[in-house]
Amino acid sequence: MITPSDSQDTTNAPSPFLFRAATALLQACVVYLLLDSAGAHSSWPATHPTLFVPSLLVAIYVPLIVLLGLGNLGGRALAIWAILASMILVTLGYHDATRGRFLLSAPPTYWPWYALWLTLTPALFIANVLVTDASLERRPFPSYTLHFDTAWKQGMQLVFTLVFVGLFWGVLHLGASLFSLIRIDFLKTLIGHLWFSCPATTLAVAAALHVTDVQPSLLRSARSLALTLFSWLLPLLALLVLGFLVSLPFVSLVPLWHTHFATLLLLSAEALLIFLINCWYQDGGGEPQARSVKCLAAGMASLQLPVLAGLAIGGLLLRVRQYGWTEERVFAAALVAVAACYAVGYALSRPWTGRRLPLLERTNFLAAYLMMALVLALFTVVADPARIMVGDQVARLESGTIPIDKFDFAALKFDGARWGKAALEELSKTQDLADAAIVNDRAAKALAQTNRSFLPPKPPTAADFTDHVTIWPAGHTVPPKLSDMITGAADVRGRTFCLQGRATCVLRFLMLGSDDHESALLVSSGIGLLYTEDANGNWKVAAMLSGTLSCPNSLDAFRGGNLEQTPHPWPDLQVAGQRFSFLPEENRCP
Fold this sequence. Notes:
This protein is mainly alpha-helical.
């Protein structure tokens, strides 16, 4: 087959490489400016997510589209596709920046969502192949032979490019380490600078894509060898899946669903079967023998695909009925839809006949377009997983399907994006639900959470003070201002170490020195605080007790034992307005 890369003698033409190099340098400049603005001290445009996120996506992906399309598309077609891809990336990036996410970093740098990165990379690769082939043949469904050749050529280009860039940086780091052995750190310092790493990486990518593009025959030879080798795994996997499916009637499906990752594993098995079937079929020109081992294995695998897809659908629906929709289950539903498309098309194509399979070819095209549509839906407001999750979970709460004590309010805060925050704000004020006061309280707590695993500390009450603080001497009256200070926000240390930890504390009143005012010593196994009262009756933390308070029976000794006041053996030091005390070395647990 003759492709545009074969028809052009690009080996001696400098313009493709120079154009790729110029594109790489331009990309490096833009990426450097964006990443530099998101450094330790964030500045514009990193401080404006609606500008930063779309710009970063465009700067990363559009130059790669240009570099890949240079040897396959004409200048006008390539420009149109680059502009269209930029518009799509800006749309997805803007939605990602405005959907809202919980950020731990301060000041927050709003990087693109990791799920967007993971999905956008393969999606843009598929879209680039479809656009390239449709442009070359000027029809939405080009010949399967061309589609197969373009997809595998560009796929192998990207694989070789990743390997080359990885080795490139490995060589640089090895050289830097060698120079460091003789205390020459110039190279180590150089490669650590962003202004060097950006152009070095983009130029390495451009060089690798150029070298692999001018030798398509070598790529086809490597591709044929790899596909032939991989296709021999098809009989093995088909036999293993057959054994798994035959075993199911003899063991229930309960162990399968108890794994909690059955749907993902089933989809992984189906994806690998689809990949190996395509390794066997290749571009469809081989006319495989009907009775060959691989042909029979492909036929068996094509009939296994609907069963695996059905089990994946059943597992997903079971979890949705039990616990409702989550972000992960929405993504799983999209994968199940694609898997079902492949399963039906491959089963109806009847690979065991050994003839050309036009239905399989059309299925590959249909599944590719379905994936593009799902990506656009999932990463826009049309079917954003967070929006679907919040709507379903709140509906389950309002209908009483899920009890209040089982409802995950924190999931709305940390997974629900802006829809989750809005739902929590509404739930914190609603009076239309049964036990509305409980719902209001838990929604308000979820809004205040900064860690998914822990609720914000609950301020102790007067009952907590009574239950967890032993007063000595027994029956001594505790001044109200002192108890309010210990349980209130003014005394975070005493409140944290004593009441919040539900530990037992001792509050001992004693006279210290020649002062006529009584002091109070709050002691627990973690900390000791000395409170003093001023002339206006206000209490404050005057000192922290040093020593090992975790010794056995130390609290009992503080509770009822005699306290002996002894002078300190060494005077304190006053340094730059700060007091330092010497702790005797023998001050250990007896």
